[in-house]
Amino acid sequence: METPNLFDLQIDGESSGFLKEISRWAKFLSVLGFVMCGLFLLIGLAMMVGASNPLVDASMQGMRYNVVFIGVFYLVCGGISIIPYVYLFQFAVKMKRALGSGEQEALNNSFSNLKSCFKFVGVMTIISMVFFVLAIIAMNFIPLT
């Protein structure tokens, strides 16, 4: 069986149309992702500022640390979540430029950004799954009372 030669592949009109539509959706999703990450960061900051308010009742002191922890968690999640959206946005911008100008380098850079986006999401998915498994194991060994 003969292996197809990838150098014979071309971007024809139909493929170009698909890639143009993909780049529009990628740009839309990345901008929406930027907004969501910004909200995460604002909520995290608001929680931390609110918890550091000196007017909070002394009986709520223990709860203050929980709110700060959740605020830091939101900041970390918002900061990490922005990375794949940056890659996705760069994919969309460079793909649009590549299709408009026919630049091979822009096309290659565009696909490189898409690869990086999927690679980052894949690694983060694996890390999340490991944490979930560890949490399930820990729940079986930590007494409730």
Helix/strand/pairing category: mainly alpha
Question: Strand content of the residues, in percent?
Answer: under 5%
Count of distinct strands: 0
Number of helices: 3
Distance between the termini: 65 Å
Q: Which key features would you list for this structure?
A:
3 helices; 145 residues; single chain; mainly alpha
Would you kindly provide a written description of the structure presented here, covering whatever features stand out?
The mean pLDDT is 88. The termini are far apart. This protein has one domain (15-141). With 145 residues, it is mainly α. The longest helix is centred in the middle third of the chain and has 41 residues, at 61-101. The protein is 81% helix and 0% strand.
